[in-house]
Structures are given as structure tokens and as C-alpha cells.
Design a protein that fits this description.
10-stranded antiparallel β-sheet, TIM Barrel, Beta-galactosidase, Chain A, domain 5, 15 helices, alpha+beta, globular, single chain
């Protein structure tokens, strides 16, 4: 498991292997006393010799370090998540902890864990003799790549991740375009033209896949990565606020940093099924989890994005009225959709555009045309849960003053889920800085205390904390479906990149299921928007949904979230046979298998619904059509099952005829193999039941 080899500095090269012995981590201290590590898989370099260390105001942990001692350990367990892509997760690794001292005797520890699917490491600062706090100036962690890999990335922005993924060589990473100004109201300046946010995913020339991210982000700023495009190296780039320049964080010692993670896979699909991020988080801290229920939900939401209605009352077309909410509840009840999100129910939306947005929301006062108590009562009568909504408009100080009473209100009404939002700039802060990380985590903990599930929009990126606090159900943190309503839209390759990038970090609330794909006006086409404010839509000149209807169905299986939205308007589902798949598809799983996948090209995934003999398969494509073969070998042997297949029609075209699809039924067994052609930006979905 561990090998020691003396080097010229008088230190020892330490090698730790993964349980299957395929991955090797090497640790060393070089001649300048700088800690260095490297990673190999099957003898192929994954991470070349890369620096570790920190610079703090009180102590220097960047050089002149000596190894004081090392310890090794092997660990193996199986644990059951409250919800997830599988009902049981194996957590097996070999670990190495290195105790280092600087020239003044101050200590820093580095703990490595080596899994079969990658590595994680973190720093620990013990108590210091003269200091109770450390002021972090810089983290020196590097990830040196062995070549000029193909990378999929979004620019390094400390305020959001809502960008279309770019595919390029590492040497070509350049976010200059985004620095010029991004056409979205709450996007902000990119921190560096050669910075990327994590997860950043790569493919080597030998066909291996690598994804860099972090896990268990607590009381520390989020990490983006500076890219050395000449040497193919990524360096930690910690977010800082706007009040204390050049100070990344202030920490109380003893302290452990978040884990820095490198997922390594032989196939694109193996990235999706990796549990490394979850395994590096602490076990569930909630004793009672009976109230945590994965679910599908509709929303008074899409109609605002496409201009049918609005969030504010003064607009004259307020969407969150008592009558409209009851109409949605009736549809949900009739179609077994368990929950309804209601946005724009509370006063204050008229002030969202103010320069100073503090104090505009109190999260308790409804608009005059919305009776909160009556809507909740009616929902209970119809068997439909209400999902509350707290748009903070980035007025974080106001939210922290109000949120306790707001959660009390929801708890008293029996509302056990809330969607939060943080649109806009936070005065003095960035969404990824230490202050905001602590705020997001505070909301996570406090909602758990009120037995409220949480869906965070404009969030800090997920880092697996949903294992520790499983009420943290889902979040945005990527360019989702809403951009198809009022921007230049998401290009087809975007959706087939997300499973290998953002979704690796944790569940994502993409909001799939748009059926009226021609409703949204797009450039240079005269699509009918007359039913919903055609003049406004033409003025915005916004884009359409760049996918087929079968693609929208496939998203329910391909994109993972235990809260899964049924995003379109009720009238667009009525009478459409394809809606049956959305009604049937599960949201919580016993297992997940990736059947066919390549980053930015296509994804086909099969999942078994938790505790039921029901299986679902979904597939999506990007810029090119793809023919796949679904092997039903995952089914129990010796039995026959009925499969309903929803797929692109031969005449389907995602621009001209996106809503054309076919529905077929077939009897399948574990020996069945079914060929399916997915058109450009297309897809398919299969439901299998006894």
C-alpha cells in the first residue's frame, strides 16, 4: 500500500495505491522544501509533479518544510444515502497523512485519500502556539496535466456558473469574450481571462477522463482555477470579497480545508457513476429524515420567463394569484404531480431592479391577490404540496434577518420545501467568497432544523454536502433551461456536456420538460408568440429551446436531481401522450448505469427506481445525431417486461419539427437489444414496468 524512497533532499518519496492498485499517488518534498505530489493511473501520468502549500499572514507553509511524520490507513464501508443515484454506496480508500513543519516550527498536515476512481486531499492546520487564527493569503495547490488535454470549462467567475460550456485544448483556455460583458443581468466580471470554475473536465490523448473539483466546502472560499496555458497546469484561485483585498479567508485553528478532488475514469460514463465527491463528505447529521422526500413538481415559473405573466403585481399580469395557483394545483392533482412551486407570491418584486435591494422582501407578506393560507389549504385538500420561494435578490443581510421567521411561517403551514434565489451583486461580497459560503451553509442547516428541503438558485457550486445535510436537495449553478426563454439560448452541445461537468458536483435543478418548443421566439424566425405578448417577445428577440421533445423527456433520466421540475405550462401537456412518461418517471434510484456516453456528444443512462420494479432509460444528443443500442441486460433474467419507447420521428428536426416524436411499445427481456436513432439535439426515453 505504501512505499518510501529516499530523495536527494533527505526526505522520502511516499507512494500510496488505490484499493485496486491502479492509481498511485506519490508525495515528496523537493529541494526547496516545497511539498509536491503526483498521480498515475496504470503507470500513465495523470497529475505531474505539482506544488502544494499555503501562504498565510502568520506563517509560511510554502517552502522550507520538513516531514515530521507520516501515517497510513485503509478504510472500507458501505453506506446508504437518504436519496441518490444508487441506494448503497461503497466508500473504500487508502490514505496517507503527512505532518510537515516550517522553519519556525509551525505545523501543517496534508491528508490524501486514494480511491479506485480518483483522489482527494486536504490541508489541516493544528493549534498554533502564538495564533488562534490564520489569515489566508494564497493557496498554492496545483494540478499539473501530463499533456494538452481537451477540456470542457466555464470561465472563472466568483458570482455564477451560468455560462455555456466551452470545449478547447488547455492551451486555448481564454475567457476574454466573457470579460467584455455577458448578456445577462446578474453576470459579473470574470476574475481572470485564464481562470475556470470547477468542475473542469478533461480527456487525455489516451482516452482517460479527468475532472477537478472540491468536496465539503465549509467556512472557506470557493476554489476556481488559474490556467497556465503554456505548461498545462491549473492552480487554486480562491475567491475573495471586495472589502479585504488580497485576503482569501480568516480561519480559526485547528481547521481543515475542503478536499481538493481529482476524479479519474477510463470512460466518460464512469465519471457519472463516481461517488468520490460524496464519499469525501461527513455522514448524515440529521436523525429524522422521514420528511425528506424526492419529488416532481410544477411551478408558476415558466410562464413568467416566457412573458405570459410576471412576478410583480404592478405589471398588470401577476402570475402568482390565488386562482392561478388553484388551477395549477388541480392539474397537479389530476396528473399525480406531487408538488407546486409558486414564485412571485410575496410583496417586493417591484424593487428587484433597485441598486440597493436590502429591505424589499420580508418573505411573509403576500400580494393582495394571493391568499397563502387558502392556497396551502387547497393544496392539502387536493394532495399537492406547496414549495415556497425566497428570492433574496442578493440582499443577504435582509434575508439573514428575516429567514428564521420565514421558515417558522412555512413550518407552521406545513410547507416543507423552499427554493431560494440570489440574483444580482452582493455589496462587498462575491457569491463564492468565505462569507457567502458560510451563508449558504447556514441556510442549509437552519432549514434542516425546520424540516424544510432546500433548492438553491444562484448558489455556490455543490460539493457533496447533501450527504451530511440531505435536506439540501438540489440547486442551479449552471446555465439551465430558463436561458432558452429570454437569451440567445443554450446550444445543443451544452446539455450533453452538463452530465460530465456540473452534474458531477451534485444534483442540478435544470428544469426539463418543455413541450411547446416553438412558443419561444428565436432570431430570424417568425414563430407564433401571439398568445403571450408577441410584441414584448419580439422586442427581446429571445431564443427558442434548442432540442426535440424526445430530448426533453430523456433529460429526466440523464440529468440527476431528486427534485425534478415539470417545467412547461399545464396547457402544453394536456392531450399530449408523451406527458405520460413524465408522470411515470422516477426521481430516486436503486442504481444507475451509463450505457453509452461521450462528453459533448451523447449520453444514454438506465436507472432503476428505488424500491420498485420499474426501470427508465433516457438518451440525449448534441450537435450530431447518434445511433445507440440499448442493451436491456440490466433487467432480471427469465422475465418479460413491457417497454414504452418515446423517440425522435424520422422526420424530426430540432429547428423545423422539434415536437415530432414516435411512441412504440415492445416486450423486452434481459436479452433484448434495441437500436434507436437520436436526431440532432434529439433523444429518447423508455419506461419499463412489470
Amino acid at each position: 500500500m505504501v512505499v518510501y524512497v529516499c530523495n536527494t533532499y533527505g526526505q522520502y518519496i511516499t507512494k500510496v495505491k488505490s484499493p485496486d492498485k491502479d492509481i498511485i499517488l506519490e508525495f515528496n518534498v523537493n529541494q526547496e522544501g516545497q511539498p509536491v505530489y503526483a498521480v498515475l493511473k496504470n503507470k500513465e501520468p495523470i497529475i505531474t509533479a505539482s506544488r502544494l502549500g499555503f501562504k498565510t499572514e502568520e506563517a509560511d507553509f510554502s517552502q522550507n518544510l520538513n516531514i515530521q511524520s507520516t501515517s497510513v490507513n485503509a478504510f472500507q464501508e458501505k453506506w446508504k444515502p437518504v436519496w441518490g443515484q444508487s441506494s448503497e454506496i461503497e466508500n473504500s480508500y487508502n490514505s496517507l497523512t503527512v505532518h510537515l513543519a516550517n522553519s519556525t516550527g509551525d505545523l501543517i498536515f496534508i491528508e490524501f485519500r486514494v480511491f479506485d476512481d480518483g483522489i482527494g486531499f486536504r490541508y489541516a492546520f493544528p493549534e498554533l502556539s502564538n495564533h488562534h487564527t490564520l489569515t489566508i493569503r494564497d493557496e498554492l495547490t496545483e494540478f499539473g496535466m501530463s499533456g494538452n488535454h481537451t477540456a470542457w470549462w466555464v470561465p472563472g467567475c466568483w458570482d455564477n456558473d451560468e455560462y455555456v460550456y466551452t470545449q478547447s485544448k488547455i492551451s486555448e483556455v481564454d475567457a476574454s469574450y466573457f470579460q467584455k460583458g455577458y448578456p445577462y443581468s446578474h453576470a459579473t466580471t470574470i476574475t481572470n481571462k485564464n481562470a475556470v470554475n470547477t468542475p473542469v473536465t478533461m480527456k487525455t490523448s489516451t482516452g482517460k477522463y479527468i475532472s477537478i473539483h472540491e468536496a465539503a466546502l465549509i467556512d472557506f472560499p470557493g476554489m476556481s482555477l488559474l490556467v497556465d496555458t503554456m505548461n498545462y497546469t491549473f492552480k487554486s484561485h480562491l475567491a475573495e470579497d471586495e472589502i479585504h483585498p488580497n485576503v482569501k479567508a480568516t480561519i480559526q485553528v485547528p481547521f481543515k480545508t475542503p478536499w481538493r478532488t481529482v476524479q479519474i475514469a477510463e470512460s466518460a460514463g464512469a465519471l457519472i457513476t463516481s461517488n468520490l465527491i460524496l464519499n469525501l463528505n461527513e455522514p448524515n447529521k440529521l436523525e429524522d429524515v422521514s420528511w425528506i422526500k424526492p419529488t416532481k413538481y410544477m411551478g408558476i415559473w415558466w410562464e413568467m420567463h416566457i412573458g405570459k405573466s410576471a412576478w410583480d403585481l404592478k405589471s398588470g399580469k401577476h402570475g402568482a394569484t390565488t386562482g392561478n395557483a388553484k388551477s395549477y394545483i388541480d392539474f397537479c392533482s389530476a396528473n399525480s404531480i406531487p408538488a407546486l412551486l409558486i414564485e412571485g407570491w410575496n410583496t417586493g418584486w417591484e424593487g428587484c431592479g433597485n441598486a440597493n435591494r436590502e429591505g424589499i422582501f420580508d418573505f411573509q407578506t403576500p400580494y393582495a391577490d394571493f391568499d397563502l393560507n387558502e392556497v396551502v389549504r387547497y393544496g392539502k385538500e387536493k394532495g399537492v404540496e406547496i414549495i415556497g420561494h425566497h428570492e433574496t435578490s442578493a440582499a443577504v443581510s435582509t434575508y439573514e434577518k428575516c429567514m428564521d421567521q420565514a421558515y417558522q411561517l412555512y413550518h407552521a403551514l406545513g410547507i416543507n420545501a423552499v427554493k431560494t434565489g440570489y440574483v444580482g451583486r452582493i455589496p462587498g461580497h462575491r457569491h463564492y467568497d468565505q462569507y457567502m459560503v458560510n451563508h449558504y451553509n447556514k441556510v442549509m442547516v437552519e432549514t434542516a432544523g425546520f424540516k424544510i428541503m432546500l433548492d438553491v438558485h444562484e448558489p455556490i457550486k455543490p460539493t457533496g454536502l447533501c450527504r451530511t445535510y440531505p435536506n439540501l436537495m438540489s440547486g442551479e449553478g449552471m446555465r439551465g433551461q430558463e436561458f432558452n426563454a429570454w437569451s440567445d439560448g443554450n446550444k445543443p452541445s451544452h446539455n450533453v456536456t452538463l452530465p460530465f461537468t456540473r452534474n458531477l458536483a451534485g444534483p442540478m435543478d435544470f428544469t426539463p420538460g418543455i413541450f411547446d418548443l416553438k412558443l419561444v421566439k428565436y432570431k430570424n424566425h417568425d414563430t407564433d408568440f401571439s398568445a403571450y405578448d408577441a410584441q414584448d417577445a419580439a422586442a427581446k428577440n429571445v431564443s427558442r429551446v434548442y432540442s426535440t421533445l424526445a430530448h426533453q423527456l430523456g433529460l429526466y433520466v440523464v440529468f440527476y436531481s431528486p427534485l425534478q421540475m415539470v417545467a412547461d405550462l399545464p396547457e402544453n401537456y394536456k392531450g399530449n401522450p408523451a406527458f405520460q412518461f413524465i408522470k411515470d418517471v422516477g426521481v430516486d434510484w436503486d442504481w444507475t448505469k451509463v450505457l453509452d456516453a461521450e462528453v459533448a456528444s451523447h449520453v444514454v443512462i438506465a436507472r432503476k427506481e428505488k424500491g420498485k420494479n420499474r426501470w427508465f432509460v433516457g438518451g440525449i444528443t448534441g450537435e450530431n445525431e447518434h445511433e445507440t443500442t440499448v442493451d436491456f441486460g440490466f433487467l432480471p433474467t427469465g422475465k418479460k417486461f413491457k417497454a414504452i419507447i418515446y423517440q425522435d420521428d424520422p422526420l424530426t428536426d430540432y429547428i423545423q419539427t422539434p415536437e415530432k416524436y414516435l411512441i412504440k411499445s415492445a416486450v423486452v427481456t434481459s436479452k433484448t437489444k434495441l437500436g434507436i436513432l437520436m436526431k440532432k439535439a434529439g433523444g429518447f426515453a423508455v419506461s419499463i414496468m412489470e
